Amino acid sequence: MIGRVRVLSGSVRSALRTVLVAGLRGYLGFALRTTRWTIRLSPQSQDWLTGRDGRVAVVAFWHEMLPLSPALWWWAEPHNPALRLRVLISRNQDGRLIADVVAPWRIWSIAGSSDTRGKNKGGANALRQMRRSLRHGCLVAITPDGPRGPRRKVQQGALALARLAGAPVVPVGAACRSISLKTWDRMALPLPFGRGVLACGDPLFLEDQPAESDHALVLEQALNQAMACARSHRGTSLGREDGPQTLAPLNLSPSRLWSAIGVVLTPLLPLFLRWRLARGKELSGRVREKMGYASCARPEGALIWFHAASVGEVISVLPLVQKCLALRADLHVLLTTATVTAARMVEQRLTDARVIHQFMPLDVPLWGRRFLRQWQPQAVVFTESELWPTMIGLCHARNIAVALVNGRMSDRSFRHWRRVPGIARAMLERFAWICPRSPEDAQRLSELGATALLPAGDLKRAAAPLPFDEAAFASLRAFLGGRPIWLVASTHMGEEQALIDVARSLSRDIPELLTIIVPRHPERGAEVAALAGGAPRRQLGQLPQKQDSFWVADTLGELGLFFRLASCVFMGNSLPGCKGGGHNPYEPARLGCVVASGPLTDNFTEAYQRFGDSVAIVPDTQALEDWVRRILSSPALSEQLGHAAREIALADQSLVERLAERVLALAWSC
């Protein structure tokens, strides 16, 4: 009975606290939003407060203006939506209450305060967290006289942090229509429908101060001047640009319409998933993962979420995932995909126990929130063109840093996003950083609103050579007995019949020629084999006999094996008649293959330009036939082109390490 009473009492306290937090947040938000604010900023401080060009600073204000501080954040964040803020708030009961009140406004707390009178209040740990946050691009706000005063007397924490991080201290003051509470700091409780001023002085660089100066006194004077400035100008207008203005939290959803459509469609989407399951496009027993339900438990410790929709994106991101795991032994990775074939590739290529595979939930609010509650990633990395407004907004609301690697924006996607420029800008602004795949992609992303762009770099250029089964390779090479082999890789519907016709024409002059067809989607193996006159299929364990001109390699994850067997390679999805866009030429080139592609290479324009004459672009099937004849008849030319392509493919191997360090910095900045 006593135990039940205690449980009931705890539940009541929890419910009352929830109501109190919601009530305080509602009142504070209403009062600050209805206040007309004038902004008085030192020109030298504005860039530091908005994190422009990667600047970071310690933002200092007196403890009494804690209830007014969200207004400063509401002003700063729209100038840089990727900006993140950490506020030092004591870990006592009152401090945790304040932290919960402001958290939905993306004001995230670091728990701790200065250790005094021999008591450990988490000051040392908090100092380490704040220094780490500054190092990785976050603003850090601190009340130098908190948590228990004396009022308006600077303690050493803010100064020590600034010295350790090498960051300036930006003094901030605020005043508005308010009442002073009877607390040690005379805390200002804002009243609605008033006028207020946010004032900011010049940044203080402690290393520039005279050696004999009292840094605490210098900061006290700067803070008091900022407060005096705010009070003296309260209720006055400083011109159209500076005020007065209404401030409010940044809208965290890139598109309310997109989210609303997701909410409306949510009851129907399970039927859509069942339809996909019936057609073999989902895995039985794992469909609920696409609704945000986890099929396994989250491991303890830090976790980074990587998303790669299909096979191409998985190939791009695998080296980055492996490098992050190698650099941090305490890291776990959640790798999500959208397709079944990509999931199977992850299972084959990533056997590290620290890697968990799940399917990405559909981009609707309910399922996205469920997914994030379960996995609670420290950082998120999307790959190539995976841009999902609802999920990006949900991550932003939880202050989870989101990055984009191998950022790709095809001409077609660019035209589509330009029709909804507001959504595109709001979404791209929220990325902590974007590493575009090419300068052309960087230009398109920039035009759509991306701001934090890194130098272009293609992860597919930096990947390791595709793996292969050495025993299978030796067995197949012996079985094929030196036959000339033409590999047609990653083919799509609409071009395969033309490629088969080319192979038949070649076989009339080169009777021993074996054409290996690797369809992009292995489930189409039977269809492709039928087009090739009932050709043997790898998936069924069938091998090509001497009389067979075709072999359909309809398995997953064996391209490394077939590239090594081939005399020359044609990359599919590139001939007129198919969807077009091309496929990654780096994979065969990295193995010294002689490579050709059709003219439709929009998805890899920069890559093919980089290879120049070492990779052939054939305009039609007749040109392709002539190219294969030339390569098979000239071993010297084949060796020369293969060597040249390999040199280019292996030219940049440092990108993966640079990006891995940036990804880990996102996860360990909190």
TrEMBL record:
Span of domain DUF374: 82-151
Pfam family, any one: DUF374
Keyword Transferase: yes
Keywords assigned: Transferase
SUPFAM superfamilies: UDP-Glycosyltransferase/glycogen phosphorylase (SSF53756)
Main enzyme class: transferase
Lineage: superkingdom: Bacteria
Catalytic activity: lipid IVA (E. coli) + CMP-3-deoxy-beta-D-manno-octulosonate = alpha-Kdo-(2->6)-lipid IVA (E. coli) + CMP + H(+)
InterPro entries listed in its UniProt record: DUF374 (IPR007172), Glycos_transf_N (IPR007507), Glycos_transf_N_sf (IPR038107), Kdotransferase (IPR039901)
EC number annotated for this UniProt entry: 2.4.99.12
Record has Transferase as a keyword: yes
Annotated pathway: Bacterial outer membrane biogenesis; LPS core biosynthesis
Domain 3-deoxy-D-manno-octulosonic-acid transferase N-terminal: 286-461
Function statement: Involved in lipopolysaccharide (LPS) biosynthesis. Catalyzes the transfer of 3-deoxy-D-manno-octulosonate (Kdo) residue(s) from CMP-Kdo to lipid IV(A), the tetraacyldisaccharide-1,4'-bisphosphate precursor of lipid A.
PANTHER family: 3-DEOXY-D-MANNO-OCTULOSONIC ACID TRANSFERASE, MITOCHONDRIAL-RELATED, 3-DEOXY-MANNO-OCTULOSONATE CYTIDYLYLTRANSFERASE
Record protein name field: 3-deoxy-D-manno-octulosonic acid transferase
